[in-house]
Amino acid sequence: MPQGLRVSKTFLLNRGDPSLNRSDLFFSQQNMNLLCRDESCSVYQMKNETGDGTATYYEVYPGIGVMYNDFHMECCPSRKFENNTHTFAIHHCREGRVEWEVSNGAYLYLASGDIMLDSSATENNHCSFPVSHYHGITVTISVPEAVEGLGDLLSLFSIDLEQIEQQFTLKTRPFIMHGNSVPDHVISELYQAPENIRLEYLRVKVLELLVTLKTVDPTVLGVERPYFYKTQVEKVKAIMSFMTNEPDRHFTMEELSEKFDISTSALKQCFKGVYGIAIYTYMRNYRMDLAASLLTQTDEPITMIAGKVGYTNTSKFSEAFKKIKGKTPLEYRKIKI
User: Fold this and answer.
1) Which string of DSSP letters, residue by residue, matches 74-127?
2) Entry's InterPro entries (predicted)?
3) 4-221 has which CATH code?
Protein backbone atom coordinates (compact mmCIF):
# COMPACT_ATOMS: atom_id res chain seq x y z
CA MET A 1 0.00 0.00 0.00
CA PRO A 2 1.23 3.51 -0.62
CA GLN A 3 2.50 4.46 2.79
CA GLY A 4 1.21 1.43 4.65
CA LEU A 5 3.82 -0.54 2.77
CA ARG A 6 6.30 1.86 4.35
CA VAL A 7 5.15 1.05 7.86
CA SER A 8 8.55 -0.59 8.15
CA LYS A 9 10.02 2.91 8.16
CA THR A 10 8.04 4.30 11.04
CA PHE A 11 6.54 1.49 13.03
CA LEU A 12 7.81 2.91 16.32
CA LEU A 13 5.78 6.06 16.78
CA ASN A 14 5.53 8.85 19.26
CA ARG A 15 3.44 7.51 22.13
CA GLY A 16 3.15 10.81 23.95
CA ASP A 17 -0.57 11.21 23.24
CA PRO A 18 -2.39 8.48 25.19
CA SER A 19 -5.61 9.13 23.27
CA LEU A 20 -4.01 7.89 20.04
CA ASN A 21 -3.53 4.23 19.24
CA ARG A 22 -0.06 4.08 17.68
CA SER A 23 -1.33 2.35 14.54
CA ASP A 24 -4.00 5.08 14.27
CA LEU A 25 -1.27 7.71 14.46
CA PHE A 26 0.81 6.03 11.81
CA PHE A 27 -2.06 5.57 9.38
CA SER A 28 -3.35 9.10 9.96
CA GLN A 29 0.09 10.34 8.88
CA GLN A 30 -0.51 8.43 5.65
CA ASN A 31 -3.85 10.20 5.10
CA MET A 32 -5.72 7.02 6.00
CA ASN A 33 -8.78 7.07 8.24
CA LEU A 34 -9.95 4.40 10.66
CA LEU A 35 -13.05 2.66 9.27
CA CYS A 36 -13.66 0.06 11.96
CA ARG A 37 -11.95 -1.95 14.66
CA ASP A 38 -12.55 -5.07 16.71
CA GLU A 39 -10.48 -6.81 19.37
CA SER A 40 -8.04 -8.26 16.84
CA CYS A 41 -7.70 -5.83 13.92
CA SER A 42 -8.15 -2.30 12.59
CA VAL A 43 -9.25 -1.32 9.08
CA TYR A 44 -8.00 1.93 7.53
CA GLN A 45 -9.02 3.61 4.29
CA MET A 46 -7.45 6.06 1.87
CA LYS A 47 -9.32 7.95 -0.86
CA ASN A 48 -8.28 10.42 -3.53
CA GLU A 49 -9.13 11.38 -7.09
CA THR A 50 -7.43 8.23 -8.47
CA GLY A 51 -9.38 5.72 -6.35
CA ASP A 52 -9.36 4.20 -2.90
CA GLY A 53 -7.77 1.49 -0.82
CA THR A 54 -7.91 -0.27 2.53
CA ALA A 55 -5.38 -1.77 4.90
CA THR A 56 -6.50 -4.35 7.45
CA TYR A 57 -3.94 -4.40 10.24
CA TYR A 58 -3.32 -7.08 12.90
CA GLU A 59 -0.74 -6.64 15.66
CA VAL A 60 0.16 -10.29 16.16
CA TYR A 61 3.02 -9.77 18.63
CA PRO A 62 4.66 -6.76 20.27
CA GLY A 63 6.49 -5.06 17.43
CA ILE A 64 5.18 -7.41 14.72
CA GLY A 65 2.16 -6.65 12.54
CA VAL A 66 0.43 -8.18 9.52
CA MET A 67 -1.36 -5.99 6.97
CA TYR A 68 -3.73 -7.07 4.21
CA ASN A 69 -3.51 -4.43 1.48
CA ASP A 70 -6.29 -3.87 -1.07
CA PHE A 71 -5.86 -0.82 -3.30
CA HIS A 72 -7.65 0.33 -6.43
CA MET A 73 -5.89 3.60 -7.11
CA GLU A 74 -2.95 4.94 -9.06
CA CYS A 75 -1.21 7.36 -6.75
CA CYS A 76 -1.33 8.65 -3.22
CA PRO A 77 0.13 11.45 -1.10
CA SER A 78 3.80 10.99 -0.34
CA ARG A 79 5.30 11.59 3.06
CA LYS A 80 8.99 11.45 3.87
CA PHE A 81 9.91 10.03 7.26
CA GLU A 82 13.11 10.16 9.19
CA ASN A 83 14.78 6.77 9.37
CA ASN A 84 14.97 6.82 13.16
CA THR A 85 13.64 3.32 13.74
CA HIS A 86 15.18 -0.12 13.38
CA THR A 87 12.62 -2.05 11.40
CA PHE A 88 12.27 -4.32 8.39
CA ALA A 89 9.30 -5.59 6.44
CA ILE A 90 8.32 -8.53 4.25
CA HIS A 91 6.01 -7.61 1.35
CA HIS A 92 4.12 -10.01 -0.90
CA CYS A 93 2.37 -8.89 -4.08
CA ARG A 94 -0.54 -11.19 -4.85
CA GLU A 95 -2.08 -9.14 -7.66
CA GLY A 96 -1.21 -5.92 -9.43
CA ARG A 97 2.06 -4.04 -9.36
CA VAL A 98 3.88 -1.70 -6.97
CA GLU A 99 6.28 1.07 -7.94
CA TRP A 100 8.87 1.95 -5.30
CA GLU A 101 10.86 5.16 -5.40
CA VAL A 102 14.22 4.27 -3.91
CA SER A 103 17.35 6.34 -3.36
CA ASN A 104 18.81 8.72 -5.94
CA GLY A 105 15.59 9.07 -7.92
CA ALA A 106 15.50 5.45 -9.07
CA TYR A 107 12.44 3.19 -9.25
CA LEU A 108 12.01 -0.50 -8.48
CA TYR A 109 8.95 -2.62 -9.33
CA LEU A 110 7.24 -5.39 -7.39
CA ALA A 111 5.26 -7.80 -9.58
CA SER A 112 2.57 -10.37 -8.86
CA GLY A 113 4.15 -13.30 -7.00
CA ASP A 114 7.14 -11.30 -5.75
CA ILE A 115 8.34 -11.26 -2.15
CA MET A 116 10.40 -8.25 -1.12
CA LEU A 117 12.29 -7.63 2.11
CA ASP A 118 13.34 -4.09 2.93
CA SER A 119 14.75 -2.21 5.88
CA SER A 120 14.37 1.24 7.39
CA ALA A 121 18.11 1.57 6.72
CA THR A 122 17.34 1.99 3.01
CA GLU A 123 15.42 4.95 1.67
CA ASN A 124 12.16 3.95 -0.02
CA ASN A 125 10.39 7.29 -0.08
CA HIS A 126 7.24 6.63 -2.02
CA CYS A 127 5.27 3.99 -3.86
CA SER A 128 2.34 3.91 -6.27
CA PHE A 129 0.42 1.47 -8.45
CA PRO A 130 1.12 1.66 -12.21
CA VAL A 131 -1.79 -0.65 -13.14
CA SER A 132 -4.13 1.04 -10.62
CA HIS A 133 -4.58 -1.92 -8.32
CA TYR A 134 -2.59 -3.88 -5.76
CA HIS A 135 -3.48 -6.72 -3.42
CA GLY A 136 -0.94 -8.15 -1.04
CA ILE A 137 0.40 -8.64 2.46
CA THR A 138 3.00 -6.78 4.50
CA VAL A 139 4.61 -8.20 7.63
CA THR A 140 6.26 -5.44 9.67
CA ILE A 141 8.91 -6.07 12.31
CA SER A 142 10.22 -3.51 14.79
CA VAL A 143 13.42 -5.26 15.80
CA PRO A 144 14.04 -3.64 19.23
CA GLU A 145 10.42 -4.01 20.31
CA ALA A 146 10.15 -7.60 19.10
CA VAL A 147 13.41 -8.60 20.79
CA GLU A 148 12.33 -6.97 24.04
CA GLY A 149 8.84 -8.45 24.06
CA LEU A 150 9.50 -11.83 22.43
CA GLY A 151 13.08 -12.62 23.37
CA ASP A 152 12.36 -16.05 24.86
CA LEU A 153 9.99 -17.06 22.06
CA LEU A 154 12.42 -16.00 19.34
CA SER A 155 15.23 -17.88 21.09
CA LEU A 156 13.06 -21.00 21.31
CA PHE A 157 12.83 -21.04 17.51
CA SER A 158 16.42 -19.84 16.99
CA ILE A 159 15.19 -16.68 15.27
CA ASP A 160 17.75 -13.87 15.16
CA LEU A 161 16.11 -10.84 13.55
CA GLU A 162 19.36 -8.94 13.05
CA GLN A 163 20.89 -12.02 11.45
CA ILE A 164 17.99 -12.13 8.97
CA GLU A 165 18.72 -8.50 8.05
CA GLN A 166 22.39 -9.35 7.51
CA GLN A 167 21.57 -12.52 5.56
CA PHE A 168 19.65 -10.53 2.96
CA THR A 169 21.92 -7.44 3.21
CA LEU A 170 18.84 -5.31 3.80
CA LYS A 171 20.84 -2.32 4.98
CA THR A 172 22.19 -1.81 1.46
CA ARG A 173 19.18 -2.50 -0.78
CA PRO A 174 15.83 -4.34 -0.85
CA PHE A 175 15.90 -8.08 -1.57
CA ILE A 176 13.41 -9.64 -4.00
CA MET A 177 12.59 -13.28 -4.67
CA HIS A 178 9.83 -14.70 -6.84
CA GLY A 179 7.57 -17.66 -6.04
CA ASN A 180 8.31 -21.38 -5.74
CA SER A 181 10.14 -20.99 -2.45
CA VAL A 182 9.46 -22.09 1.11
CA PRO A 183 8.70 -18.51 2.24
CA ASP A 184 6.30 -18.16 -0.72
CA HIS A 185 4.41 -21.25 0.44
CA VAL A 186 4.12 -19.89 3.98
CA ILE A 187 3.01 -16.44 2.82
CA SER A 188 0.33 -17.94 0.58
CA GLU A 189 -1.15 -19.53 3.70
CA LEU A 190 -1.52 -16.10 5.32
CA TYR A 191 -4.32 -15.46 2.82
CA GLN A 192 -6.17 -18.54 4.08
CA ALA A 193 -6.34 -17.68 7.79
CA PRO A 194 -9.57 -19.12 9.28
CA GLU A 195 -11.75 -16.29 10.55
CA ASN A 196 -12.52 -17.85 13.93
CA ILE A 197 -8.84 -18.32 14.82
CA ARG A 198 -7.28 -15.67 12.60
CA LEU A 199 -5.03 -13.97 15.18
CA GLU A 200 -3.72 -17.27 16.56
CA TYR A 201 -3.18 -18.56 13.03
CA LEU A 202 -1.24 -15.44 12.04
CA ARG A 203 0.97 -15.76 15.11
CA VAL A 204 1.94 -19.30 14.13
CA LYS A 205 2.50 -18.43 10.47
CA VAL A 206 4.62 -15.35 11.19
CA LEU A 207 6.96 -17.47 13.31
CA GLU A 208 7.03 -20.10 10.56
CA LEU A 209 7.86 -17.42 8.00
CA LEU A 210 10.77 -16.10 10.07
CA VAL A 211 12.09 -19.64 10.57
CA THR A 212 11.88 -20.48 6.86
CA LEU A 213 13.68 -17.27 5.88
CA LYS A 214 16.76 -18.77 7.52
CA THR A 215 16.74 -21.55 4.90
CA VAL A 216 16.87 -19.17 1.94
CA ASP A 217 20.12 -18.79 0.03
CA PRO A 218 19.96 -15.21 -1.29
CA THR A 219 22.47 -15.99 -4.03
CA VAL A 220 20.16 -18.70 -5.40
CA LEU A 221 16.67 -17.25 -4.94
CA GLY A 222 17.43 -13.56 -5.29
CA VAL A 223 15.95 -11.88 -8.38
CA GLU A 224 17.86 -9.01 -9.94
CA ARG A 225 15.38 -6.33 -10.88
CA PRO A 226 16.63 -3.36 -12.91
CA TYR A 227 16.29 0.10 -11.45
CA PHE A 228 14.80 2.72 -13.75
CA TYR A 229 15.60 6.38 -13.32
CA LYS A 230 12.99 9.05 -12.83
CA THR A 231 13.47 10.66 -16.24
CA GLN A 232 12.87 7.33 -17.98
CA VAL A 233 9.83 6.48 -15.85
CA GLU A 234 8.28 9.91 -16.42
CA LYS A 235 8.74 9.58 -20.19
CA VAL A 236 7.23 6.09 -20.25
CA LYS A 237 4.21 7.26 -18.26
CA ALA A 238 3.81 10.22 -20.60
CA ILE A 239 3.92 7.82 -23.55
CA MET A 240 1.26 5.62 -21.98
CA SER A 241 -0.97 8.65 -21.41
CA PHE A 242 -0.36 9.90 -24.94
CA MET A 243 -1.28 6.55 -26.53
CA THR A 244 -4.34 5.87 -24.38
CA ASN A 245 -5.68 9.35 -25.14
CA GLU A 246 -5.60 8.47 -28.85
CA PRO A 247 -6.55 4.76 -29.02
CA ASP A 248 -7.66 5.13 -32.64
CA ARG A 249 -4.08 5.81 -33.72
CA HIS A 250 -1.18 3.37 -34.02
CA PHE A 251 2.33 4.62 -33.29
CA THR A 252 5.60 2.91 -34.12
CA MET A 253 8.39 2.58 -31.59
CA GLU A 254 10.47 4.92 -33.68
CA GLU A 255 7.78 7.61 -33.66
CA LEU A 256 7.39 7.40 -29.88
CA SER A 257 11.15 7.30 -29.39
CA GLU A 258 11.64 10.48 -31.40
CA LYS A 259 8.67 12.34 -29.93
CA PHE A 260 9.65 11.65 -26.30
CA ASP A 261 13.44 11.63 -26.73
CA ILE A 262 14.07 8.11 -25.47
CA SER A 263 15.87 5.28 -27.25
CA THR A 264 13.70 2.41 -28.51
CA SER A 265 15.59 -0.11 -26.38
CA ALA A 266 15.15 1.98 -23.23
CA LEU A 267 11.48 2.53 -24.10
CA LYS A 268 10.83 -1.20 -24.47
CA GLN A 269 12.71 -2.17 -21.31
CA CYS A 270 11.36 0.61 -19.10
CA PHE A 271 7.75 0.26 -20.30
CA LYS A 272 7.76 -3.45 -19.48
CA GLY A 273 9.45 -2.70 -16.16
CA VAL A 274 6.76 -0.18 -15.19
CA TYR A 275 3.65 -1.92 -16.53
CA GLY A 276 4.72 -5.56 -16.56
CA ILE A 277 3.99 -6.20 -20.25
CA ALA A 278 5.25 -5.05 -23.63
CA ILE A 279 3.99 -1.73 -24.97
CA TYR A 280 2.02 -3.23 -27.88
CA THR A 281 0.43 -5.85 -25.62
CA TYR A 282 -0.57 -3.09 -23.21
CA MET A 283 -2.26 -1.08 -25.96
CA ARG A 284 -3.98 -4.13 -27.45
CA ASN A 285 -5.47 -4.94 -24.05
CA TYR A 286 -6.40 -1.30 -23.47
CA ARG A 287 -8.18 -1.06 -26.83
CA MET A 288 -10.15 -4.26 -26.21
CA ASP A 289 -11.14 -3.14 -22.70
CA LEU A 290 -12.30 0.19 -24.12
CA ALA A 291 -14.23 -1.58 -26.87
CA ALA A 292 -15.87 -3.88 -24.31
CA SER A 293 -16.96 -0.85 -22.30
CA LEU A 294 -18.40 0.86 -25.38
CA LEU A 295 -20.23 -2.31 -26.41
CA THR A 296 -22.01 -2.58 -23.08
CA GLN A 297 -22.51 1.07 -22.22
CA THR A 298 -23.50 2.54 -25.59
CA ASP A 299 -25.63 1.66 -28.60
CA GLU A 300 -22.93 2.66 -31.05
CA PRO A 301 -22.55 0.42 -34.11
CA ILE A 302 -19.72 -2.10 -33.92
CA THR A 303 -18.15 -0.49 -36.99
CA MET A 304 -17.92 2.84 -35.15
CA ILE A 305 -16.48 1.21 -32.02
CA ALA A 306 -13.89 -0.58 -34.15
CA GLY A 307 -12.80 2.78 -35.57
CA LYS A 308 -12.52 4.32 -32.10
CA VAL A 309 -10.00 1.66 -31.08
CA GLY A 310 -7.91 1.85 -34.23
CA TYR A 311 -9.46 -0.69 -36.61
CA THR A 312 -10.65 0.29 -40.10
CA ASN A 313 -11.52 -3.33 -40.86
CA THR A 314 -14.44 -4.60 -38.74
CA SER A 315 -13.60 -8.26 -39.39
CA LYS A 316 -10.06 -7.80 -38.08
CA PHE A 317 -11.46 -5.98 -35.05
CA SER A 318 -13.88 -8.84 -34.34
CA GLU A 319 -11.07 -11.36 -34.65
CA ALA A 320 -8.81 -9.39 -32.28
CA PHE A 321 -11.65 -8.82 -29.81
CA LYS A 322 -12.56 -12.52 -29.69
CA LYS A 323 -8.93 -13.46 -29.14
CA ILE A 324 -8.82 -11.31 -25.99
CA LYS A 325 -12.39 -11.52 -24.67
CA GLY A 326 -13.34 -15.01 -25.86
CA LYS A 327 -16.41 -13.80 -27.79
CA THR A 328 -17.13 -11.72 -30.86
CA PRO A 329 -18.22 -8.11 -30.24
CA LEU A 330 -21.82 -8.98 -31.14
CA GLU A 331 -21.86 -12.00 -28.79
CA TYR A 332 -20.26 -9.93 -26.03
CA ARG A 333 -22.84 -7.16 -26.40
CA LYS A 334 -25.78 -9.60 -26.24
CA ILE A 335 -24.48 -11.41 -23.16
CA LYS A 336 -23.64 -8.25 -21.24
CA ILE A 337 -26.98 -6.52 -21.85
Assistant:
1) S----------S-EEEEEEEEEEEEEEE-GGGEEEEEETTEEEEEETTS---EE
2) Homeodomain-like_sf (IPR009057), HTH_AraC (IPR018060), PchR_regulatory_protein (IPR053142), Tscrpt_reg_AraC-type_HTH (IPR020449)
3) 2.60.120.10
